[in-house]
Amino acid sequence: MELDDLDRKAAEAFPGHIVRKDLVRRFRGQFPVPTYVVEFMLGRYCASTVPEEIEEGLQMVQSQLSDRTVRAGEEELFKSKARDRGSVRIIDIITARLDSKTDSYLATLPSLRLNDVRISDKIVLDHERMLTGGFYAEIELGYDASIAQEKGGRPFEVLSLREIQLSTRDILDKIAAGRAQLTTREWKDLLLRSIGLEPASLSARSQDTTLLRMIPFVERNYNLIELGPRGTGKSHLFQQVSPYAHLVSGGKATVARMFVNMANGQRGLVCQYDVVCFDEVSGVSFDQKDGVNIMKGYMESGEFSRGRESIRAEGSIVMVGNFDVDVQHQQRVGHLFGPMPPEMRNDTAFMDRIHCYLPGWDVPKVSKELFTNRFGLVSDVLAECFSRLRSQSRVNVLQGRVHFGGALSGRDQNAVNKTVSGLLKLLYPDPTVAVPDDDLEWAVRLALEVRRRVKEQQKRIGSAEFRNTQFSYVIGLDGVEKFVSTPELQSEDSIGSDPLPSGQVWAISPGGQDESTGLFRIEVTESPGGGVRILNQSPPGPFRESARIAEQNLYARSRELVGERNPREHEFALQLRSFDAAKSGEQLGVGVLIGLCSALLGRPLKGGLVIAGGITLGGTIEPIHNPIDVVELAMEKGAAAVLVPVSSRRALIDLSDDVATKVQILFYADAPDALRKALHD
User: Fold this and answer.
1) DSSP assignment, residue 159?
2) Rounded to an integer, what distance in angstroms lies between the CA atom of residue 123 and that of residue 103?
3) The dihedral of CA 42, 45, 47, 49: what is its sign?
4) What pLDDT is attached to residue 201?
5) The dihedral of CA 257, 261, 264, 267: what is its sign?
6) Is the dihedral of CA 536, 539, 543, 544 positive or negative?
7) In 10 A of CB 481, how many CB atoms?
8) Parallel/antiparallel/unpaired status of strands 482-483 and 472-475
9) Residue 492 scores a pLDDT above 60
10) Which is it for the CA torsion 228, 233, 237, 240, positive or negative?
11) Which residues belong to any copy of the Lon proteolytic domain (predicted)?
12) What does the H/E/C string look like for 610-634?
């Protein structure tokens, strides 16, 4: 295989910590162990770009995995070897429990079907995770023939073990130093290759959603939900890539196992693992009625009370599940939390604790084309770095640089802060590195989108307190307010509820003799210079006339419209987009004028607003000959409000009740009045 630029850079930046990811797949299915165990072995023997060294290392890995992993049907063979030799080395998942009858710990080795293996107190206390879900380790298993002859004797004993862990204490410093040698784009690609995916096969959207999946590994007490089609690898990251994650398969989740066992005080999964993932979440239920309430309390504060004690833990909660239908249909028949268990499905308090609703429908189905054959970081090294990053925060990067809009509640802001912090930790493992505005804005937009998706579902359930979902942000003190939508709610040819960027206006033309009413979008940008330029090639005559008249009105009434700003010192670039059969852009003068003012003021218009009406050179508002058709089209296109000349008021008395209750009609007397009513508060 020819090395590409990123392979060479990664080999130079992370010597001894990279592995070719196709080698991992060579062993997949051969041995009964997860991916990160295979990568641990490959990282030990094959962390090289020299083909001969890789081949030699592969033989070592093959030999060790063959000798130390127990396939089905080989249990008695390994036990026999332990008896004959006195001990045997195996790779297995080990769990332990306290046997109160003998006041000693007993280990379970599932591959050998042994559940009464003696183990010293010291080994258990040094590796407490074996008391919850257990972990994979290289185990030296001893056999004592004299104990075997005793009644009820337990001859097998764990003599020593080593957790499957390649990384060292200073691993985060090494990775941060290597990251400094790569660009942000290269580092993102390497992160994706490190979990086995080829970035060139993924769209930019799919890459972003895959990076979002990694946040629970680097952010404490992060609550993420991902629902989407089957076969997109939702649980792969949480089952195969990191030993710090634990997968709870669908079914009963006991309070004792999740949080704390009241009988012996043993701490549960959220205390022992960085990430606890509920797979097939639609089938999950707790053994106790208060299980969901304990979970809600933990998701809110990171604490739970059992008895008199309040226990703090840092494990992130991830829930993954499947839609039986596509996302559009799911939104038509209900809301996007529909596949959740009944006790969580319509609980807005539970939803409010979700920091990120990841759009699983934007991740492609797993196929061999998506897998990489290139070099990536060894999973174990990556997992250790992620775990170390949990003790850091990047929220301080937002201070003074990003200002959020008024629609965000305290919980919304906390959720967005955590998501931004997680994304920036993934991009910049070194906290001292300055984060450029472009990367910060990328993180902020993603964070606002995945939190807004939660808020939109709460709004659908009908809670009035969640009605304001128009999330926005400003970067820098003089920045423009930008709104972030959730793509699945937006349609390119319909009027969304979010304000458009400043200078952009939805407008309806009443049409003319040969043309019916039509929806248009007017887009205006301003820069230093002078005059108005129409960017459309050969723009229609009626629209060109509307633009000329709007320009003259702006110059003549600038003080009333834009205050102290001088429009003659600015050049305006104007573009018209048609969304219907109508093309001429007849009678759009008021819409163009408001677009010019919005661009000059740097202020957006109200979300869901569409403007109708023409204007004369003298500033008189032209009447609309068919206002009922205009308002009906506005409703059809999803408008929340339509701005029409006051001269249309009498004609609109005949508007049907259905339309009148769905669209708010705002009347204006002149251009300044229209502008005041159109601008976003």
Assistant:
1) E
2) 15
3) negative
4) 93
5) positive
6) positive
7) 17
8) antiparallel
9) no
10) positive
11) 520-680
12) EEECEECCCCCEECCCCHHHHHHHH
3-state secondary structure 91-152: EEEEEEEEECCCCEEEEEEHHHCEEEEEECHHHHHHCHHHHCCCEEEEEEEEECHHHHCCCC
Which three-class secondary structure state does DSSP give residue 523?
strand
Residue 302, pLDDT above cutoff 70: yes
User: What are the pLDDT digits (tens) for 4-28?
Assistant: 899 899 989 998 788 888 888 888 7
Interacting residues of 42 by C-beta distance below 8 A, sequence separation 6+: 19, 23, 24, 57, 58, 61, 378
Q: How far, in Å, are 28, 177, 183, 186, 218 from residue 13 at the CA level?
A: 28, 8, 12, 12, 22
pTM: predicted TM-score of the whole model, two decimal places: 0.75
412 falls in which pLDDT band (50, 70, 90)? very high
Listed in sequence order, the residues at least 6 apart from 356 whose beta carbon sits closer than 8 Å to its beta carbon are 212, 215, 222, 223, 224, 225, 415, 419, 447, 450, 451
Phi and psi at 380, nearest 5°, equal: -65, -40
The predicted pLDDT at position 1 comes to: 66
Contact at 8 Å (CB) between 47 and 19? Answer: yes
* H or E stretch covering 592: helix 589-601
CA 86/CA 71 separation, integer angstroms: 21
Question: Rounded to an integer, what distance in angstroms lies between the CA atom of residue 134 and that of residue 139?
Answer: 13
Residue with tokens 């979002």: 212
518-538 pLDDT, tens digit each: 999 999 999 999 999 998 888
Query: What domains lie within the chain, and their CATH numbers?
Result: 13-68 (no CATH), 74-163 (2.40.50), 170-370 (3.40.50.300), 393-487 (no CATH), 491-678 (3.30.230.10)
E strand spans, 131-279:
135-143, 156-163, 223-228, 245-248, 252-253, 275-278
Torsion of CA 384, 386, 390, 391, to 10 degrees: 50
User: What is the C-alpha to C-alpha distance for residues 308 and 605, in angstroms, rounded to an integer?
Assistant: 54
Cα–Cα distance between 338 and 331 in angstroms, integer? Answer: 9
Residues near 24 by beta carbon (within 8 Å), at least 6 away in sequence: 35, 38, 39, 42, 196
- Give me 373's structure tokens: 């054959």
Average pLDDT, stretch 595-623?
Answer: 94
Token digits of residue 68: 């130390």
Question: Are the beta carbons of 61 and 27 closer than 8 angstroms?
Answer: yes
Least confidently predicted of 47-56, 180-189, 559-568, 605-614 = 47-56
The rounded distance, in Å, linking the Cα atoms of 351 and 344 is 8
Please, are residues 536 and 521 in contact by the beta-carbon 8 Å criterion?
no
Mean pLDDT, all residues of the chain: 88
Query: Which amino acid is residue 211, in one-letter code?
Result: L
- Give me the pLDDT at residue 217, please: 95
- Residue 101, CA distances (Å) to 106, 117, 124 in order: 11, 15, 18
The H helix count followed by the E strand count for the chain is 26, 28
